[in-house]
Each structure stands twice: as C-alpha cells, then as structure tokens.
Amino acid sequence: MSQSPSGRAGVVDPGTERLTPPLHGADLVVVANRLPVQQTSKEGDDEWRPSPGGLVTALTSMLQNRNGLWIGWPGGSQHDELPETFEGIQLRPVDISPEEYESFYLGFSNATLWPLYHDAIRAPTFHRHWWHTYAEVNMRYARAAAEAVAENGTVWVHDYQLQLVPQYLRKLRPDVRIGFFLHIPFPPSELFMQLPWRREILAGLLGADLIGFQVPSAAANFSRLARRITSATGTATDLVYEGRQIQVGAFPISVDCKQITAMALDPAIRARAVELRATLGNPDLVLLGVDRLDYTKGIQQRIRAVAELFADGTLDPEHAVMVQVAVPSRESDAHYEKERHDLEQVVSEMNGEHGLVGKPVIHYLHQNLPFDELVALYLAADIMLVTPFRDGMNLVAKEYVMCRTDLTGKLVLSEFAGAASELRGAFIINPHDLEGIKEGIRSALKVSKKEGKSRMSRMRRKTLRRDVFDWTNSFFAALARPVQPVDLETVDQFDD
Ligand code: F6P
After folding, report:
1. Same domain, 278 and 144
2. Strands 427-429, 149-158: parallel, antiparallel or unpaired by DSSP?
3. What is the Cα–Cα distance from 255 to 265, expressed in whole angstroms?
4. Lowest-pLDDT choice from 1-15, 238-252, 286-300
5. What's the gap in Å between 182 CA and the centre of ligand 1?
6. Are residues 158 and 57 located together in one domain of the fold?
7. Does 105 reside within a domain?
8. 425 three-state secondary structure
9. Protein residue closest via CA to atom 5 of ligand 1
10. Are 287 and 431 part of one and the same domain?
11. How far is the centre of ligand 1, averaged over its atoms, from the C-alpha of 292 (Å)?
12. 392 C-alpha vs ligand 1 centroid, how far in Å?
C-alpha cells in the first residue's frame, strides 16, 4: 500500500495488488464502522452484549443464514477478550489507534462529513491530515474484507465513515459483489461541492455494484454528482463507470415491527408506562422527545416551542409535562459539548420560568436508557416530538408509531427527516420555523379522536408494510440481481 503522490488527493493507492480469495472465506461480509457488540462492565467484569437496535438484529439474522462475518471497530482500544463469534456470526475487529480516533472518527467522519451531509448546520471542518487518516483507515477495513470474503462472495459496506471501502475492495478483490448503504442524508451539489475530496469520495462509492440511500432525493443527488464530477454516465438509477454497471436506489430503513409490537403489548412494560405517568403526576398531556444528543436533531427548537406554548397559556403547567431523553453521543467533540451546554440552559430556563414547586414542566434525562424503558415512555406519551433539522430516516418516529397499537398518540415530525416521506399521518412541521412547530403541536392537541386514530392507523399500516427485515431482503435482492453487460454505445446520458 502506498500514498498517492498527489498531496491534495491523499488517497491510499492499493496499486495493482490483488488478493487471493481465502480457502474458507465467508459468503457474506458486513463492513460497518462498529461491530454489532459492545462491551459493558458489570461488577468489575467486562461483558460483550449485542448493540441495541433493529439494524443489528436484521443484519445478524441475514449473516447467520449465509455463513456470515462482520468487520468493525469494537469501540475501545482493547479487544483482547472480544469473542470470535457472536450468535453464530464471525466477528473481525479493526484496530483504530487513539490518534486515528481523533482524525478518522471525531475528525473526518464527524466534523467534516457529518455536518456537511446534514445541511452544514454546523460549519464542516476540512483538514488534509484528517482526510489522509480517513483514507488509511478505509483501506484497513477494505483489506480486512478482502481477506475474509469467499471467492465471488458478497460484501455489504455501511455508512459515511467507509465511503472509500467499495473502491479499495474492488481493486483488491475484483471477483466480489459489493453493496453500499448510506444511513445518513446525501447532500445536494451546493453542499457536496465544498468537499475538497469530492471526486475521491464519489469514486470510492462507485466501486460498489449497488449504492443505496434512505430516500429517492438522496439517490438523485448522488447520481447527478457522479455524472458531473466523475466519468460516470447513465440514468439516475443505472450508472456506468469504468465499464461497470452500478445500480443506485432508495431503500428506506425501518424497525423490527414484530419485536416492538410484542414489547408494546407486554404487561410488564405497559405497567411501567402507567407507573411513569403516575410519577409525572398523572397529567392530562405528556409530550416526549427521544434523541441522540446531536445538534442535527433540533432538540432546543422543540423545547423553545413547548416553552412558548406554556407562556401563551396553550399548555398549563398543572396539567402538561414534557420528557426529553438525550442520549450521550460524541462527547469529546466541541460542537456536541456546546450543544449539551446550550440545551441544558434551555431546559433550565423552561423549568425556571414555567415550572411549579414539585411540578417541573420538563424532565430531562441525559442517559442511555434500556429499550424497554423507551417503549414504556413511548406508551406513556400523548404527543411525540421528532424535529430534526435534517435526518437520514429517524427510527424513533417509526418506533413510536409501532408502539401505539391502540391507535392513540400523535406524532409531530420534521419535514426534513427521511421518515416524513412515509409517515404522512404525522403533523409535519418545518423545524426552522418556531411558530410552525407550535402550530404542529396545537394541531395535534386539537385533532379529533377519530382523525387522530385514522392518522395513526395510516402510519402503522405504512410502517408494517416494510420492516427492517424487508429492508435487508430488498437491498440484498437488488444486489444479487445479475449484472447486464454494458453496451457503452447505448448508455443514455441523463439530462439535468
Ligand atoms: O446515524 C448514523 C450513525 O452512525 C448510526 O449508525 C449510529 O448509531 C449513530 O450515528 C451514532 O454513531 P457513533 O456513536 O458511532 O458516532
């Protein structure tokens, strides 16, 4: 492996090296930034547990059926005790040094790409040394996949931290089928063009046979940019690049509907929901927000909107209360630290101005709650507030909908969350418009029982139609579709 002579590009050049397929390789390999297990400390003993969430469940069951292996970062720098297998799938850790954690994870992934791909609501930072490390670490993941996958096997690469992996992997192992899925938004050209390494990122993704996005507009943004910046030709959904055919499409991710429904009907969790409401003083109205503590989620905006509704008398502190769960995230980044500080200020102002003795108007939990406690909160909440400035999908919205088996509950949802294109029964708001958020909450308060139920029923039907297992199956089916030989003479040029 060598560095490209071009300091600007700084991309790792795998050269002409080809790896021989391993003798007993895995038929299917998932490559993601993190492994599907996390280390938890219990009474001094470290224990590995599955990472929470439907995505891990769905991918794990797909890997179990296909002699599968998962490549990812175990989280800390120590993984001596990492099990070799987990629920029947092989685990292959990728090492990331403390310096690489700074440049690859906190730097290029979360201070360059993350803000840039989320409407640049915080200024993205561009550093050449971050980019170099990003390329090096991506090569490490690609090499691990190339060494693990069987001849003509399949590799499914996930998310923005690993956008160069498809290209590197293709060079090392041209025999394998490569899929890539981006879990976060893909920005329009006005933003993406800021990236000094825009061509390299696009070329990295174009190493895949199938590139999936959450929503059609993200897929369209990508195809348009690929044709503009690289030598790719073709249509919005079928590109041709370096003589290969590449499919591009939208595959909206979802949740494990069966599991969530079972939890929402579980008597113990239902009793906990009743208990939670009682602890809150059995108010007439419970408003709820559940988010990773991230500046993209619009948490402060929504709290300000609710505070103004208390101020103008729409909400009464004797009878209404809000609960905001903010899951700690990326805490060593200055933007996240500031977001926490500002958010806690807003929470304390709201309680200071509108709370009563023994009756705060907002309960704020900066904690990572177990999923059954979240389900109990979803059951206890009359109105769910999901107001991100930009979000790839937002699974909290779908989780809430899946919990409301009796069709009660209202969802106020940002038009800039991917989920908004599916959950049309929500009260759709613009999170930049404080009056608009207030109006959305007012509409949710006023809606008749009948219309509320019909809205929830519509959202539940839509979500039930495609759960996270359908998502993995549809992506995998598209990836397995036989490639048509490319006739370069007849490829259409898509006209922008
Ligand atoms: O939404 C993108 C994502 O990377 C998820 O995959 C992940 O659960 C979340 O952001 C937090 O990511 P991390 O803690 O790895 O930065």
Report:
1. no
2. unpaired
3. 16
4. 1-15
5. 11
6. yes
7. yes
8. coil
9. 183
10. yes
11. 9
12. 11
441 located within any domain: yes
Distance from the alpha carbon of residue 330 to the mean position of ligand 1, in angstroms? 9
User: Do 66 and 105 share a domain, yes or no?
Assistant: yes
- Domain total of the chain: 2
Which tens digit of pLDDT belongs to each residue from 257-304? 999 999 999 999 999 999 999 999 999 999 999 999 999 999 999 999
State the average pLDDT over residues 158-186: 98
Question: Nearest CA to 210 among 156, 145, 144?
Answer: 156
Residue 496: pLDDT above 70?
A: no
What is the best residue among 30, 56, 113, 184 to mutate for testing ligand 1's pocket, by most ligand atoms within 8 Å of CB? 184
CATH of the domain at 147: 3.40.50.2000
pLDDT tens digit sequence for 103-138:
999 999 999 999 999 999 999 999 999 999 999 999
Cα separation, 167 vs 324, in Å, equals 41
In a domain? residue 362: yes
Domain carrying residue 157? 26-253+472-490
Handedness of CA 476, 200, 218, 491 (dihedral sign): negative
Please state the atom number of ligand 1 nearest to the C-alpha of residue 109. 16
Nearest to 179 by CA among 158, 208, 136, 141: 208
Is the pTM for the entire model greater than 0.70?
A: yes
Question: Which atom from ligand 1 is nearest to the alpha carbon of 392?
Answer: 1
CA of 488 to the centre of ligand 1 (A): 39
Q: Where does ligand 1 bind, in terms of residues with CB under 6 Å?
A: 33-34, 159, 183-184, 329-330
Give the pLDDT confidence of 342-362 residue by residue, as tens digits: 999 999 999 999 999 999 999
Residues 6 or more apart whose Cβ sits within 8 Å of residue 237: 219, 223, 247, 248, 249
Q: How far is the CA of 496 from the centre of ligand 1 (A)?
A: 33
